[in-house]
Specification:
Elements (H helix, E strand, L loop, with lengths): L1 H25 L7 H11 L2 H7 L1 E4 H4 L8 H6 L7 H9 L4 E4 L7 H12 L6 E4 L23 H6 L3 H18 L3 E2 L24 H17 L6 E4 L14 E2 L4 H6 L1 H11 L3 E4 L2 E2 L1 H4 L9 H11 L5 E3 L6 H4 L4 H11 L4 E2 L4 H14 L4 H15 L2
Parallel strand pairs: 1-2, 1-10, 2-3, 3-4, 5-7, 6-8, 7-9
Helix pairs in contact: 2-18, 3-18, 9-10, 10-12, 16-17
């Protein structure tokens, strides 16, 4: 008898819960769409908040007491926590994302303490890292982290099996997600066609675009299935260069027709797959643009080719703007404004955030950049953040 009474009580409770759910649904006959939600958020944002979303920075950029010239300077005095100076700067300079480098990460305990500090920063920044597998792996190459290590993407490409690229992306994505990262600036979609290339090399899957393309999309899928957003880089292709853009100007002498037969095969594959981020290269492409301007600051490369011809609609993010290929030619202000005018949505790693941020604000106030142009980028960024 008691058993029957319990069953009846459970049935009544279930009916009441269903009734509440139906009532809730009926009161929300027109649920807001993701697009409308983005517009709703955008409408509530100040110009300063919008501009802030377009800056993804390194830890050191927020600490204005730090003055550095080379990466060695940063490695000698690494920042491992968000300090008060950083919070004070960030109060006036909101950011959309923050990227951690190897020297910012000590061990699991320190990282676990750091991430909530980053989450609390003004702008609700996404947490980013370069964790490609192989040489560029901030966590896997740290002996304090017990995660799977990979020889290189070239070694994976050499297997000829895209499932191995999926396994790599999924494994990396799984531990990144566990530690709290949102975005992995990987995979490299470059085709390593120049044997003298000192910066890409085995970071690329292959010197054959037909081999590299399915590797890129499977790696992206692996990341996605683990809950991490990937980014293909470095558009329009850093594989046929000789110089490291970390230290100076580099260029490709290929025509657009030649790129379509090689570099664009992998980028087209990534775009067709639905990649959310494409990272620009700071390389010149004079036979495409007619000038030596870095692709990061070229409307021909970013708007005419990437958006127009290839139909890419998601986020364009720069490579690190503190790299020599940019800083040897432009100030932080010139680089930030110029890259946004060229079509960039996110300025990654400006050497001087305050200078870059202020310059974009002034450009909008003067009409050099319209607020609607800013809105276009922020819509894409908010859409990513809502995923």
């Amino acid at each position: 008898m008691n058993h029957m009474r319990k069953n009846i009580l459970w049935m009544i409770a279930a009916i009441l819960i269903c009734g509440l759910m139906v009532t809730a649904c009926s009161n929300d006959d027109n649920p807001i769409s993701p697009k409308d939600k983005v517009e709703e958020l955008l409408a509530k944002m100040t110009l300063r908040e919008k501009v802030g979303q377009m800056f993804y920075v390194r830890m050191e950029t927020l600490d204005t007491t730090i003055h550095w010239n080379t990466y060695a300077d940063l490695q000698e005095n690494p920042i491992h926590e968000v300090n008060q100076t950083m919070r004070d700067v960030n109060a006036n300079y909101p950011i959309g994302g923050l990227i951690l480098y190897a020297w910012n990460i000590d061990d699991e305990a320190q990282l676990a303490k750091l991430i909530p500090q980053i989450r609390a920063l003004n702008g609700h920044p996404l947490l980013c890292i370069d964790e490609e597998g192989g040489r560029v792996s901030r966590l896997a190459n740290n002996p304090n982290f017990n995660v799977k290590k990979y020889e290189s993407m070239a070694a994976i490409g050499a297997t000829g099996d895209p499932n191995n690229a999926y396994e790599c992306g999924n494994t990396i994505g799984t531990y990144l997600h566990r530690y709290g990262f949102d975005i992995d600036f990987a995979p490299v979609a470059d085709v390593n066609t120049n044997p003298e290339n000192i910066i890409i090399g085995p970071r690329a899957f292959s010197d054959d675009p037909a081999v590299a393309a399915p590797m890129v999309t499977n790696y992206l899928q692996g990341l996605k299935d683990a809950g991490v957003t990937g980014c293909i880089k470095h558009f329009p292709g850093h594989g046929d260069t000789k110089v490291d853009t970390h230290f100076g100007y580099a260029s490709t002498q290929k025509t657009w027709a030649e790129m379509l037969d090689c570099e664009m095969v992998t980028f087209k594959a990534g775009i067709a797959w639905g990649c959310q981020l494409v990272m620009t290269a700071h390389i010149g492409a004079p036979k495409v643009t007619g000038s030596d301007v870095p692709s990061t600051m070229s409307p021909i490369i970013l708007q005419d080719k990437l958006r127009g011809e290839l139909g890419y609609q998601n986020i364009i993010i720069t490579d690190g703007m503190e790299m020599g290929a940019i800083t040897q030619q432009y100030t932080s202000a010139e680089a930030a404004v110029g890259s946004i005018q060229a079509g960039v949505d996110i300025v990654l790693g400006p050497k001087n955030l305050v200078e870059a941020f202020d310059a974009v604000m002034v450009a909008v106030e003067k009409g050099t950049i319209t607020e609607e142009r800013i809105n276009q980028s922020v819509r894409r960024i908010l859409k990513l953040k809502m995923k």
